[in-house]
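Progress note, project year one: complex with sulfoquinovose-uridine-C1,5'-diphosphate.
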Amino acid sequence: MKVMILGGDGYLGWPTSMHFAAQGHEVLALDNYLRRKICFDTDSNPLVTRPTMPERSILFEEVSGKKIETEAVDLCDYRKFESIFKDFMPDVMIHYAEQPSAPYSMRGYEEARLTLQNNLDVTFNAIWAVKEHNPNCHIVKLGTMGEYGTPNIDIEEGWIDIEHKGRSDKFLFPRQAGSLYHTTKVLDTDLIWFYVRTYGLKVTDLMQGPVYGVATEETASNDQLESFFNYDDIFGTVVNRFIVQAVHGVPLTVYGKGGQTRGYLDIRDTLQCVYLAAMNEPDAGTLNIFNQFVETFSVNQLAEHVQKVSKSLGLDVEIKSVPNPRKEMEDHHYNPAHSGLLELGLKPHYLTDDVMASMIESVLRYKDQIVTRRIMPRVSWK
Ligand code: USQ
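Model obtained:
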């Protein structure tokens, strides 16, 4: 297949590009390096600097013999997007090209504006290019479990049947996000659903939980191919952050009561899920939605797990609640459905002691590069 990856330099975009190329698909990875720029501007650089897209592509070809085409381009510019789309004519378009940090989107006016504009512009341009030039192209869109928020009922897989005054119908499951970033994904969903039902597009929306890890099958022979490992408060997700904090010898930063529960997955499972989604395209006019995570944990459970495994590696780790910089429920019901991807064949990697230990060991190699001032929360919702 011809696979066009929007956001091909990102935390998930680059591993996805390698994964599809490794399976023999023709891959074009597009990115404007926005994530790298924001990391630099906010003093949130990852633990290890990673090569640029063309450099990564050369390294990947050396180890795999497979080529990934790359291009630095701002996908908010529709004329450029359209011309690349028409030249490449993808069978599948995988859309990661969004500003992905909740804290960044809550930092101030400029950051909120950039998040809203970038995320919706790229989604709209992706839909428009497909609608105009190849409605057969399957769009695989990365949504987020955070679109649903934490309602006091079980979360269904994208849709809900509602009975009202003796009649019934099927609707998108209610969404009520907890940050502007998550809200842009809710807006994406509405935009996509409108174009799917009106113009017969084929879209799969993957509602993903927080991801951990950086190593995948494709990085085994060269760790320069690994993804970004952010541990700062803006781009670092909670598991990656706790591991760095454990290695650095600072208390694990549980926000508030620590009862916040989310659905987590290993980066290797992101690749499996996106691949399975791409291989199972919906019919024209259908929006498939899958909840993409493999197990749920509260923040306290994660902190205790990191503490336990660290101890077995000789690290003495303290857990300390800090005032929650976010506005979110700290103690709530959480029981989301997630059978769709398992039915398609997902074989989960769970967060075992061994997986945790190997992540801690790989961070230990870069212990000297951890920057203390990036650890405590610097952005507040209040
Ligand atoms: N948390 C802590 N301590 C920390 C960091 C986070 O207690 O030091 C808590 C947060 O308050 C939150 C939970 O851990 O309750 C998860 O936070 P996170 O930073 O790992 O994840 P989040 O901001 O929700 O966003 C991440 C990705 C985003 C993706 C989302 C999936 O950055 O792109 O969409 O995970 S989900 O959370 O399911 O919406």
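The pocket of sulfoquinovose-uridine-C1,5'-diphosphate is lined by residues 100-102, 144-146, 182, 208-210, 237-238, 241, 253-255, 260, 262, 299, 326, 328 (CB under 6 Å).
The domain at 2-374 is CATH 3.40.50.720 (Rossmann fold).
No further modelling is planned for this target in the current period.
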